[in-house]
Every structure is written in C-alpha cells, then in structure tokens.
C-alpha cells in the first residue's frame, strides 16, 4: 500500500516502498528510491536534478522509516540511511551520503559531497559546506557554519572533519580544513581557527581551549559532569545503542 | 464571504472567519481557526500536525486581521493574537502563544512552548528555542539566536526571558536562562553570557556592559538619545498605543 | 515555444519570453516580464505583490538565460539582469536592482531598495538590509548580515556600500552605513564597526585591520597571494570578462 496524494507528481522511474505516504504538491523525480514506511510531507522534492549539471539524474536513496517534513528538497545522488528525519525547508545537495537515524533541522543546508555517519543530529539553520566529513553521534546546534574555502573565492576547498560525539554549540563557525576532536565541545558563537583536541572544550572569537569537556558541570542540581553527554542523555536513540551508555 | 483558492486544501473541521482569503496550494488542517479579515497566502500550512506526536491535533488559533505570507507553517496548538503579520517561510511550532500585533520576519523559527507578549517584532532569520518568554514591545533583529540548553545535548532546557521594550541587535546570541532587562539593548554580534540589567547596553563576545541605553545618541543630526526608542519611533503601532509615547 | 506546467498559475498580463520554462505550482503575477531561455522551477513566485502596499503591482523584470530555483519569491518592482541564478528559497524584495550574472544562494534574503552591480555572487543564508549598495564582482559568503539601522528601531536607515571585488567571509556582520573598500577582505565571523580600506583585510569582533589583502597567501602549495582573487579564480565568469584577469 502506497498513499500518494492526487496532487503529488511522481516519476514513473521512481521506486516507492510499501506503506510510503507522499503529501500534497510534492514532486518525486526520476530514479528516486524511497524506503518502506517513510512519510514525505507536502511541497517536498526528492531526487531534484541539478539543472546546470551535464549528467543524467543519478539515483537518490531515502532509507526506510524516514520522515521528510514539508518543503524539503533532496538532490539527486544523495543517499540517506534508514530512520532519517528532516525539519521543514531542508536542502540536501548532490553526493551527500549519510548513515542511519540522521536528523536535520529546519532551514539547514548541506551543500553536497559530504560524508555523514550514523546517529548524527543537526538542529536548525546550519550550513555545511562541500567536502565536510562528520562521524557518528555528532551534535550540531542552530546557526552553525562549517566552511571549506580558506581564501574565498578559490578552487582549493578543504573540508572539515567533525569526529565522534563532538558537540558544536549555536552560532559557531569552523574554519576550513579543521578537525573537531572526538567528544570535544565548541562553545556558542565561537570562531574555531585551530584543531580542537579530543575531549576538550574551546570557546570565544577566536576560540581558545578552556578546559577538558568532562570538567563542565551540568547546570542542574546534580553536580554531575555534562560530558561525555552519553552518560546522561539518550532521548531518541534506539535502545540497543543506548543500553550501555549510562554504565 | 470567504475566498478560498480552488487549489487550497481546507479541512472540514477548520473554522474560517468572514472575509478571509486563502491562497493557492495552501493547506488548512483540522481544528484550525482563522479570524476574520485575515489573509493566508500561497503554500501556507495552518494547524500543521506534528506527526511524531501521539496526540490528536489540538486547535490552532490565528487572530483577526492577520497576514500570513507565503510558505509559512503554523503548527497545531499555536495561539496567535489579532493583527499577526508573518514574512515568508516562517515556522511557528507547538504551544506558541503570542499576543496581538506580533510581527515575525522571513525565515524565522519559533521552536514552540514559548510565551510572547503584545506588539513584539521579530525580523528575519531568528531562532527562538523552546521555553523562551518574551514580554511586550520587544524588538529582535535579524539572525539572533536565543538558546535554551546550557550543556547540549541535555534534558535540562532553561528558557530566556526578554523583558519589555528590550532590543536585541543583529547576529547576537543569548545563552540559556538569561534575563534581558527592560529597555535594555544588546549590541550586534554579541554573545550574552550574563543577565542584562534594565536600561543598560551590552556589547561584544563575551558581551560586556558598556553604558546606560539612554546614553546612546541617535546617528542622525538630532543629537537626541536613541533610547527609550518609544521617544522617537512609532511606525506601525496603533494610535491608541503610541499617543502618549512622545510626551 | 514556452513550456508552462499545467499547475502553474500565470497572469494574463505577464510577458513570458521565448523558450522559457515555468515549473509546477509556480505563480507568475501581473506585470512580470521573464526573459528568453529562462527557467523558473517549482513553487516560485515572480512579481509577488506586497499586500500591505497601496500601490498597484509594479512591473518585475527577470533577464534572459536566468535560472530561478524552487521556492524563490521575487517581489514586484525588482529588476534583475541577464543570467541571474538563484538557489532555493530565495527572497528578493521590492525595488531591488541588479546587473548581469547575479548569483544568489539558498535562503538568502534581499530586503529591497538595493542597488547591486554586475557579476556579484551571494552564497547561502545572507541577509541584506534595505538601502545596501553593492558594486561589481563582490563575493558574500554564507550567513553574512548587512545591517542598516544604527540604533534600532528607528527611521534613520543608512545602507552600507560594498565596493568592487570585496570579499565578505562567512558569518560576518557589517554595521550600518559602512564602506567595505575595493578588493578588501572581511574575515570570518567578524563584526565590522569601521570602514574597511581598499585592499586591506580586517578580522575579529570588533574587526581590526590585520594586513594588506595581497599579503594573504593561498593555503595550497603554490605560495602565491590569494588576493586579488582574479589572479587565480575565474570559474563561472564569461570568457570575455576573465580573458585579461590572469595576466
């Protein structure tokens, strides 16, 4: 059973899994694959062809159990794993590859040619430049900018690497080619100009190393460390992933 | 008389006031109420249900004389007062309550569970985290971020309070749980890390108190103080509100 | 030959050039002119009337060979030259005048009453306040904010001037009324509080002059200066423009 709204426009070459729903005014382009049980809301475009490209439309892959909220545009050649969730007005461009349980907030744009791991969460209004690599369990908060051109404009684009469990707080900007270390924390509205060491916190413009992340205490009455965040937070992750986190 | 474009999709359980206009390709969901004389432009969604919620669709309320510009999405359970105006591509999420004459600029997102007073003006591309409280006559300029999680990710969200007549200038970020005092001014691209006192100006990253707001002089030839702004600015407010402002 | 999707809504008073294509669910309003060979994708609005205006709908002009990506809204009275390209969800408001080969990135908003030269490139999520003047060959990177009100809210709006070949890097903010000099470079996440001299680089919050732009070396193995950028970059410009750049 597939539920396609009568106003949706679906290419004959699209492959729509069982129990998929496609909302009003959405467009599914050639060679799009939508995994079973997924919901595509209103005004979405899946498999959007880049008109300025010379190529044919490459296949686009949306995994099972995904929720694509309204006005989201996924370009052709993107491959996004199972249990994807997007906010509204999300743009994912060509050759973006992401693992499972990826969440992308409203107004976020991924410029393409990006590799994104599993269980990654982007909040709203984030800009991810081409060639960015993001590993597993990363968190990026609203209004973060990840850049790739050290001396714009140029043809020398150098992507950043955001390593496992790193947290980049709201409004921060990462200069091109930097590595944000495993389990590190970038404080709000920081301009990161140097690599961030695994497990450290940086803050400011320009950002300076302030302390080990595990020295940051939660702002509640617990008195417990805020990091590693997996010690106290597991909302939205599957149980087989989090069962050992709090131990 | 109600003017519904033939391509609009309107739920039978929506209540549409007299003299309302609903534009092409818009969707009005169950239990939405739209007050009289309001204009809903193209591609809007009013009463949008959060699919991941277990609840039924709660009523949504849009006051009289409102103008909802194209591509705006108002979630179910939002209650927005008379004379609302939105820009394009605005997102207002669940349980946002706002008073009258609220203006929300293009690309602004209100994450929900927010209380917003009367005569508040948001410009473009603003991010308002859950649990934010905004009082009356507040101004927020473009690209401001109001946060709520002191150590993300966590379940310990602490909303900010923005008090009456405060002005938050472009690009600034407010850390979680802070109070921005009455009639205070946050300068551009500031990172506010402490409460701001009533009537004071703060500036910088991290923001520091610079002077009393009423010591800021207008950048015209008048030589007059720029604050309280009600002494020289009343554009767009109703006359019964502004009649005593300049005295 | 004009190719109008059956779901597009096109005013009888619009003038559509030869070989134009208009995508699904787009709306072309009264008095819009679309130059030949242009592509208007899905969900676009061209000649959008400001409802709160008392005026009739002024003519809107889109030049030849333009590509307007999905969800873009161009207000009535905008005049945009040949070879315009927009990203998705772009907003261009009233009385914006731009030359040829203008590129505008996704989620960018131009507030109107702006003068923009030839060969200008805006990337994503940029906010351009009213009364901004931008000359030729300017580059603006993602998440830049150009302001116009020195003491908001006020009626004393003072636009910035961005001069030829200037580059404003990601996340920066320009205070009202400033001039960003010819061939200058504003570093990332900078708050520009003073005029920037021709050919100089500024950086930081508040921004300080750091060096002449031609002392910035490319971050590749060439050891060559990154600026003037026309010495090494010409992607996307027409050959008759770039033929003398590298000499």
Helices, strands, pairings?
Three copies of one chain form a homotrimer.
Chain A: E1 3-4, E2 9-10, E3 15-16, E4 21-22, E5 27-28, E6 32-34, E7 39-40, E8 45-48, E9 60-62, E10 67-68, E11 73-75, E12 79-80, E13 85-86, E14 91-92, E15 97-98, E16 103-104, E17 109-110, E18 115-116, E19 121-122, E20 127-128, E21 133-134, E22 139-140, E23 145-146, E24 161-162, E25 167-168, E26 173-174, E27 179-180, E28 185-186, E29 191-192, E30 200-203, E31 208-212, H1 239-242
Parallel strand pairs in A: 1-4, 2-5, 3-6, 4-7, 5-8, 6-9, 7-10, 8-11, 9-12, 10-13, 11-14, 12-15, 13-16, 14-17, 15-18, 16-19, 17-20, 18-21, 19-22, 20-23, 21-24, 22-25, 23-26, 24-27, 25-28, 26-29, 28-30
Antiparallel strand pairs in A: 30-31
Description:
The structure is a homotrimer of 247-residue chains. Chain A is mainly β and 247 residues long. Helices cover 2% and strands 29% of the residues of chain A. The first copy, chain A, contains 1 helix and 31 strands. In chain A, the strands form 3 sheets. Chain A has a 12-stranded mixed sheet with strand order 1-4-7-10-13-16-19-22-25-28-30-31, with no helix packed on it. A 10-stranded parallel sheet of chain A has the order 2-5-8-11-14-17-20-23-26-29, with no helix packed on it. In chain A, a hairpin with a 4-residue loop joins β30 and β31 (208-212). The longest helix of chain A is centred in the last third of the chain and has 4 residues, at 239-242. The radius of gyration of chain A is 19 Å and the shape is globular. Chains A and B meet through loops of A and loops of B.
